């Protein structure tokens, strides 16, 4: 019998995911052994500290990466390179921000806060695994760790019917997409003889595949699996329902972490393993990106529920990020990575505000309940308007630079029609954001019934109540200090790096260059 | 040349798709043809031939506890999938394998701890679940875990 | 005597498409879970077949991971179903039909 050679393991590469994972296991042990329910402060503080720990380790990794270059470990299954460190930093920031946002929310809705933080940390560690994975099986494991924890997080609001329904829809479609993904792995494994991305890449560049059916079917199925996770059209149908049903901080977390994990794995798989087959899959992804930007933008306009509107706008954003995958150049990667980071920050901030505006039970997300918000709550209205404008791509915000980056890369690659159409879709989606701004600033305090009456059924009980009592002081939720801090950080990042973009742009560019 | 190749390369995928669709739709057609012709009518489905037609079904008892335990069992059952290959080669893996498996087991054990402390495994009237957590102590959790593991061994 | 391995691949493709179509056509949540399981196991069958064809043990090792993930996934799914049933415990049959909708 052959002796087994244990592969060398670099714990430094795995450090951020280990911090989050071990931390969540310890939090779980503490929550089950303590006499009483773990106080909210303790679990929030643990979560923030773990996020900070992961962030510090990731910055050390970045330093190491700049000095020594990228490396792989565990027999090539995990890598330490620009992409993985980028994911580590983005997700760690998202964990910290989400923990801050969730603190007040969980106490207000009387959720078990330890449960939330354990699941969020686990889910985040799944995203980190996806970011560092250099083997399709590891990508799959990361994907599942990310998704399974998210299914439960979406269902966390047990009192709300929509929460469970959204979770079930997410689960069924998520399960479908993972099965498709696994079958894709099986077919590409059969065609190339390995699940390791680097080995697949070298095999495909060294050999001409004589019977490419298996390989193409495999690549197609993998792309479908990824498109489900990042909510690209035609696999986006779950997004509005799940975003609407999930507790609002979870929606922000999902928009940030699940997208980052999914996109970076998507980029890595298609760059490392299948870049030689670009001529066959690029047209398909071209179409998907185009459809995603347009359907996201046009559907966003038609929504009466702000959470649903933001869900469609996230689809629009996904289309933009997808442009980086379509062009598959370093500039494209840099654009996509930059977009992912800035979108994560904006999304968490926006959904934090929505969580505050949703009322005591997190149910008032109808656009009509935002009427006259600028007069009632000027600070909240201003923050929301600024974040939405940033998402629309206003100059002097990171949102503008993000859109500019991917479009520039697309033009540089010669796909001028695609770039133009994407810009048109950005203009369309701006209408949806501006509509919210107009409702907040240009309408009267007293919500009046909508004239066309079409949205009557859609509106939540809360907005009907509002019509009876003009000023909605009864269920106005104050902005808690932690939530305010998180929103402040999001606004600061969005505007600081919008005005002085150097550092963040360089970070994304270098991360894209340092791909293994 | 590239264009011609593109058509060629997509052909097997298309064929696979068509065969798949055909097979799936044919099996539905076949089940439609072979199934009993008469669909049961409402009268046939009614539990009693005469009497008052029930307005709505009586509430059925739905013991969630069984499902919970069964679901938890699935998880702890499937873990053995990792233990078995380890047991086959554990001499060759030396301490490394032992440490890995111990880490794995500890993680699983913490999950068990969480379940027990939440009352997911306690039988009988669901007092703990309805009353909340206050009655729980670290001692009681440990006692319950030892009870749970000892019954597991006995079974 | 040995069976041509492509038959196993064809079988797995058929199982996968049955699962996929079942998932899209059926409206019962539990049947949908079963369809997901069928798809995952079809993938497992191809993994084992390719592993045999290529003489590489990696494919068989992957099957372990897929099995465990499938179990974890189904447990979460059943948990969600139980959570939905629990909240509307007064009318179980109505719930079953509303799930179909």
Structure description:
The complex is a heterotrimer of chains A (516), B (155) and C (101). With 516 residues, chain A is an all-alpha fold. Chain A has one domain (11-513). Chain A is built from 20 helices and 2 strands. In chain A, strands 1-2 form a two-stranded antiparallel ribbon. In chain A, 64% of the residues are buried. Chain B folds into 2 domains: 2-45; 64-154, no CATH class. Chain B has helices at residues 2-34, 42-45, 64-78, 80-117, 127-131, 138-154. By secondary structure, chain B is mainly alpha-helical. In chain B, 72% of the residues lie in helices and 0% in strands. Chain C is 85% helix and 0% strand. Chain C has 4 helices and no strands. Chain C has a single domain, classed as Helix Hairpins, CATH 1.10.287.3510. Chain C is elongated and about 55 Å long. Chains in contact: A-B, A-C, B-C. The B-C interface holds B 16, 19-21, 23-25, 27-28, 56-57, 59-60, 62, 64, 67-68, 71-72, 74-75, 77-79, 81-82, 85 and C 13-14, 16-18, 20-21, 25, 64, 67-68, 71-72, 74-75, 78-79, 82, 85-86, 89-94.
How does the SSE layout of this entry go?
The complex is a heterotrimer of chains A (516), B (155) and C (101).
Chain A: H1 11-33, H2 40-68, E1 71-73, E2 78-80, H3 82-108, H4 113-132, H5 136-154, H6 161-192, H7 197-206, H8 213-230, H9 238-245, H10 248-273, H11 278-301, H12 306-327, H13 330-357, H14 373-376, H15 378-392, H16 398-412, H17 416-442, H18 461-468, H19 481-499, H20 502-513
Antiparallel strand pairs in A: 1-2
Chain B: H1 2-34, H2 42-45, H3 64-78, H4 80-117, H5 127-131, H6 138-154
Helix pairs in contact in B: 4-6
Chain C: H1 5-25, H2 29-54, H3 58-87, H4 92-100
Short description:
Chain A has helices at 11-33, 40-68, 82-108, 113-132, 136-154, 161-192, 197-206, 213-230, 238-245, 248-273, 278-301, 306-327, 330-357, 373-376, 378-392, 398-412, 416-442, 461-468, 481-499, 502-513, and strands at residues 71-73, 78-80. Chain A is mainly α. Chain A is globular and about 70 Å long.
């Amino acid at each position: 019998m052959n002796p087994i050679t244990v592969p060398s393991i670099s714990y430094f590469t795995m450090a951020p995911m280990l911090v989050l994972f071990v931390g969540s296991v310890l939090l779980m042990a503490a929550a089950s052994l303590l006499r009483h329910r773990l106080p909210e402060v303790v679990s929030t503080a643990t979560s923030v500290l773990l996020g900070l720990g992961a962030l510090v380790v990731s910055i050390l990794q970045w330093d190491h990466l700049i000095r020594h270059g990228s490396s792989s470990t565990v027999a090539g299954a995990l890598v330490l390179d620009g992409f993985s460190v980028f994911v580590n930093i983005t997700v760690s920031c998202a964990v910290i921000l989400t923990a801050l946002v969730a603190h007040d929310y969980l106490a207000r809705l009387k959720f078990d806060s330890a449960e939330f933080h354990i699941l969020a940390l686990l889910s985040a560690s799944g995203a980190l695994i996806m970011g560092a994975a250099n083997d399709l099986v590891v990508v799959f494991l990361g994907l599942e760790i990310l998704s399974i924890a998210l299914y439960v997080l979406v269902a966390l609001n047990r009192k709300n019917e929509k929460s469970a329904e959204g979770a079930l829809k997410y689960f069924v479609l998520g399960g479908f997409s993972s099965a498709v993904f696994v079958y894709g792995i099986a077919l590409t494994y059969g065609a190339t003889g390995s699940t390791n991305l680097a080995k697949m890449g070298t095999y495909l560049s060294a050999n001409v595949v004589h019977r490419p059916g298996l390989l193409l079917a495999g690549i197609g199925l993998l792309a479908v699996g990824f498109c489900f996770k990042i909510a690209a059209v035609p696999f986006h149908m779950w997004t509005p329902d799940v975003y609407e049903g999930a507790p609002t901080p979870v929606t922000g977390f999902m928009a940030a972490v699940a997208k980052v994990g999914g996109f970076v794995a998507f980029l890595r798989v298609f760059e490392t393993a299948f870049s030689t087959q670009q001529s066959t899959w690029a047209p398909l992804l071209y179409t998907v990106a185009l459809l995603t930007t347009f359907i996201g933008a046009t559907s966003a306009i038609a929504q009466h529920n702000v959470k649903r509107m933001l869900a469609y706008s996230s689809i629009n954003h996904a289309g933009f990020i997808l442009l980086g995958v379509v062009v598959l150049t370093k500039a494209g990667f840099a654009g996509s990575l930059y977009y992912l980071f800035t979108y994560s920050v904006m999304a968490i901030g926006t959904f934090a505000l929505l969580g505050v505006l949703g009322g005591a039970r997190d149910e008032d997300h109808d656009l009509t309940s935002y009427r006259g918000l600028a007069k009632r709550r000027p600070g909240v209205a201003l923050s929301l308007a600024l974040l939405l404008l940033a998402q629309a791509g206003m100059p002097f915000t990171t949102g503008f630079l993000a859109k500019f980056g991917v479009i520039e890369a697309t033009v540089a690659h010669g796909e001028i029609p695609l770039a133009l159409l994407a810009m048109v879709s950005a203009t369309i989606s701006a209408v949806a954001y501006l509509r919210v701004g107009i409702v907040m600033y240009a309408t009267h305090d007293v919500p009046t019934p909508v004239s066309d009456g079409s949205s009557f059924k859609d509106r939540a009980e809360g907005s009907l109540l509002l019509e009876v009592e003009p000023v909605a002081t009864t269920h106005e939720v104050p902005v808690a200090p932690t939530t305010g801090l998180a929103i402040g950080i999001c606004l600061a990042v969005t505007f600081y790096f919008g005005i002085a973009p150097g550092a963040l742009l360089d970070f994304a560019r270098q991360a894209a260059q340092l791909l293994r | 040349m590239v264009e011609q190749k593109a058509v060629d390369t997509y052909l097997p995928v298309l064929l696979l798709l068509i065969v798949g669709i055909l097979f799936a739709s044919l099996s539905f057609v076949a089940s439609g043809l072979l199934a009993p012709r008469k669909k049961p009518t409402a009268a046939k489905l009614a539990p009693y031939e005469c009497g008052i037609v029930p307005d709505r079904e009586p509430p059925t008892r739905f013991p969630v506890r069984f499902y919970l335990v069964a679901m938890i069992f699935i998880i702890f059952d499937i873990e053995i999938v990792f233990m078995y290959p380890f047991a086959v080669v554990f001499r060759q893996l030396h301490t490394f394998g032992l440490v890995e498996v111990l880490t794995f087991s500890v993680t699983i054990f913490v999950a068990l701890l969480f379940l027990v402390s939440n009352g997911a495994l306690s039988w009988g009237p669901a007092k703990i679940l309805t009353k909340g957590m206050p009655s729980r102590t670290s001692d009681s959790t440990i006692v319950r875990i030892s009870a749970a593991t000892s019954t597991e061994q006995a079974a | 005597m040995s069976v041509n391995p492509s038959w196993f691949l064809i079988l797995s493709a058929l199982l996968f498409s049955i699962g996929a179509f079942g998932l899209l056509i059926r409206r019962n949540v539990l049947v949908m879970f079963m369809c997901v399981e069928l798809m995952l196991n079809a993938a497992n069958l191809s993994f084992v077949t390719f592993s045999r064809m290529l003489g590489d043990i990696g494919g068989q090792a992957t099957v372990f991971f897929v099995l465990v993930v499938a179990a974890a996934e189904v447990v979460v799914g059943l948990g969600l179903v139980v959570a939905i049933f629990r909240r509307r415990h007064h009318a179980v049959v109505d719930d079953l039909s509303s799930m179909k909708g």
